[in-house]
Every structure is written in structure tokens, then in C-alpha cells.
Amino acid sequence: MAFKDLREFVEFLEKRGELIRVTEEVDPELEITEITDRVSKAYGPALLFENVKGSNFPLLINGFGSEERMALSLRVDSLDDIAQEIIDLLDIADNVPSSMLDKVKILPKLAQLASYIPKTIKTGPCQEVVDYEPALSKFPILKCWPEDAGKFITLPHIYTKNPTNGKRNAGMYRLQVFDDKTTGMHWHTHHDGAENYRMHCEMGKPTEVAVVLGGDPAITYAATAPLPKDIDELMFAGFLRKKPVELVKCKTIDMEVPADAEIVIEGYVDPEERRIEGPFGDHTGYYSLAGEYPVFHVTCITHRKEPIYPTTIVGQPPQEDCYMALATERIFLPLLKFQFPEIIDMHLPMEGVFHNCVFVSIKKTFPGHARKIMSSLWGMGQMMFAKFIIVVDEDVNVHNTSEVLWKVFNNVDPRRDTMIIDGPLDVLDHSAPRALLGSKMGIDATKKWKSEGHDREWPKDIVMSDDIKNLVDQKWSKYGID
């Protein structure tokens, strides 16, 4: 059953002992970050700060800050449960019904899919208060790190529309607060929000934007999901929550937003205006550099009577965003396996901060198979940003970084088993010779065949016989030897 809104999620976490209310006064400038960073690295609870200096509104942070809470936010026991649902849907796509009986069998699933389409209602809690003279300063917006250029809104879902077909897009981009009515708009050039902005610019039109904070956590997560172009993030949110997202029309722009959100900031981005934004302490663990970005002008703010301000910090992992990335890894693995059945499993280690490194295990069936997978993954949406792709055999646990590195250090001949190409990189990659473009490396850490140029016999892994394993299990378990 879906969470109706953010506060229902807060109550749920509190009942499970996954949230602490903090009543002591705390400063949104740096202090909250230091507290949360320590809690994150100790794998601690969500925090609801109820007495934030300079604001009358409570602040929620670290709500997604563990694998368990990430799963709870999507109302599943395990993130792999969602992957299985996607596999079931892909099974429909891969098995076109050939008879009337087969068609009848899939009707319930098709009807269920149709039920996830968002629906518009007349009014919603997010518009209990309507402020046509808005002031961002009334919210407890964080300055996260000492060299940040200012305060940043860090957990928004940001809505734009394609000006030619009217299709909605939701993404998550940081907003540097310049003053009460303007912010930066950190649209990454490869993302759909930036593409909608460029299309508006070509027409000489402002881009209408709705910035939404809160609502069912599934909606917040959906804004981060790497969906194919023109797939509605709110329909995906409906799939995750098994209930359609209810929308209300904005007051000053032609946009619909989740009715149960906590805060909605309406406005527009001018096609000509740009301003220096940043630096910002980013999820890479480094400060992303200052640069020119579009400017967002606030025309109206609506919110609940007593809204909760949801936010996050990013920095050296582990942080809350690592678990959102883990959700993406598990949820979207079936889509990769659907296109590449030889893929057994995949892992994005947090040391690679989502996009810099990919571990993938495959069932190898022909010479050069690992290189085929590397090339294929670099052609898959946001996988194009992966600087390192490491391919291992099917029996390797890609979630065990030590095991993967053991295979790399022992199975790889650097000249034969590495592949370096040039291509696009994430805008946050500071190591590239120039912004957005650089090199990537693929590493084939699979066992090598003679047909791949390995003339010597490949050694066997050391494995104990099953009868001795069973003997020790039975005879020595009483001594705690498992």
C-alpha cells in the first residue's frame, strides 16, 4: 500500500525505530550537515529536526539513508521484489499472446498498468497556503559544506514539459538560492530537463518549472530514475506505489504537481539569463566547480499549513544518495538482462559514486564476450558515463568488492584485457581533460580461453570438497565454526 504523503512515511519510520526527532535548536548552515554526515557514516536513523534556526518548519533528512529504509520507502521487503515485478511485465512484452485465451490471461496486468496513469483532482494539501509574494528564506534550506557558494535545495523533484508534444518530465537537480525569488537551475546537459529548456530557448520562450518537495517517497525516487526518454516518471511512481499519483494544477504556470506534496515552488527560467552557480560539495566527495547555469524565477509558493522540509546532503560516501543509487541498480537490472540475457548480475559500488564504476558478471559463451558487454553498456542511456566497467565470470559475487578486485588483480593481463575508448562523461567528473568528454576503461577479468590468445592452461580455483564441508558443518558448528 502506498504512502499517502511524506508525513505518513515519517510516522511509519518512527514506529519502526528508524527515525529520531531532534528538539534542540540546530543551525541549517553547516551544523545539520556535520550531524547528518556522522549519522550516515554510522548507518544511523532518519532525523527530523523540529527546531531549525531561522525557520518555523521542521526538516527531514536521511530518510532514505539505509538499504532497509530505501526498501521501506517503496513499501517492499527487498528492492529485488520490484525487479521481479518488472520481470513479470517484461514477460508480457516478450511473449505476444497468440490465442484469445492468452490475451484474456494478460488483461488483468494490462488493466493494472493503465491504473498507474496519474490523475488530476481539483484541490490538494500542497495548496493549503498560497503565497503570491514568495520568500524562500522562510524554509530551512541548508548550506552544506564550508566552500559551498550558498544555500542549496537538494531533494526537489523538478517538473518541465516538452514544448512540442507537452510531455512531462521530472528530474532531480540542485538549486542554489540567490535570494528570496531566484535560484540557479543546475540542469545537467545530458538530461531531459535540460533538453526541454534548450527547446524552449530555440523558440525564444521561458521554460515553466515546478519545484516539488515531499509527497510519497516513491515520487521523489522516481524523479531520480534513469527512465527511457518520454516515459512519465509519475506513471513509474504509480507503478512503484501501486496507486496513481493524484495531481493538482499549479496557480501561476501550466503544470500539474503531486497533490500531497509538502511544498511547491512555481516559476520560470528565462531563455537568455545565466548566472554563475556553485561551487557545491557534491556526491563525488569533491566540490563541483562553479559554472554558468540558467536562473529560476519564483512566481508563487504553495505549501501545507505546517509543511515538512525534506532535504539531503551529498559528499564522500556513504551518504543517503548511495541507497537511492542502490535502488536504481536493483530495480533496473531486469531491463539490462532483458536486452542482454548473458548478464547474471550488476553492482555499482559506492566508491564509484553511482556512475564511475560498474561491476558486471556474465555467462561467457564466446571469445571477446566481455568486450561485447562493455561496448553494449556504454551505449545504454546513463551507462555512457561509466568510466570503468569490470566484467567477471558468472560465479563471482559482484556485490563483494574484495572478490571482484581479487579477480581483476589475478585474471587480467593489462595489455590484452583492457579496452580504452573516448566518449561522454558526467558533468561532475573533474578528472577528465575537458568538461563532459574523456576516456573510459573496460577490464575483462573473466577466465581466458585459448581462443582469446591465452596459450597456457588456466588454473582451477581452490575449493574444498563438499563431503569435508558437510563434515565440518556437522562436527564443528558447536564451537561456532560456521
From TrEMBL:
It catalyses: 4-hydroxybenzoate + H(+) = phenol + CO2. GO terms for cellular component: cytosol. Keywords: Aromatic hydrocarbons catabolism, Detoxification. One of its GO terms (molecular function) is 4-hydroxybenzoate decarboxylase activity. The keyword Ribonucleoprotein does not apply. One of its GO terms (biological process) is ubiquinone biosynthetic process. Its EC number is 4.1.1.61. Residues 10-84 form the 3-octaprenyl-4-hydroxybenzoate carboxy-lyase-like N-terminal domain. Residues 322-445 form the 3-octaprenyl-4-hydroxybenzoate carboxy-lyase-like C-terminal domain. InterPro entries: HBDC, UbiD, UbiD-like_C, UbiD-like_N, UbiD_Rift_dom. Pfam families: UbiD, UbiD_C, UbiD_N. Residues 122-317 form the 3-octaprenyl-4-hydroxybenzoate carboxy-lyase-like Rift-related domain. Gene3D superfamilies: Single helix bin (1.20.5.570), UbiD C-terminal domain-like (3.40.1670.10). Belongs to the UbiD family. PANTHER family: 3-OCTAPRENYL-4-HYDROXYBENZOATE CARBOXY-LYASE-RELATED, FERULIC ACID DECARBOXYLASE 1. This is Phenolic acid decarboxylase. It comes from Candidatus Syntrophocurvum alkaliphilum.
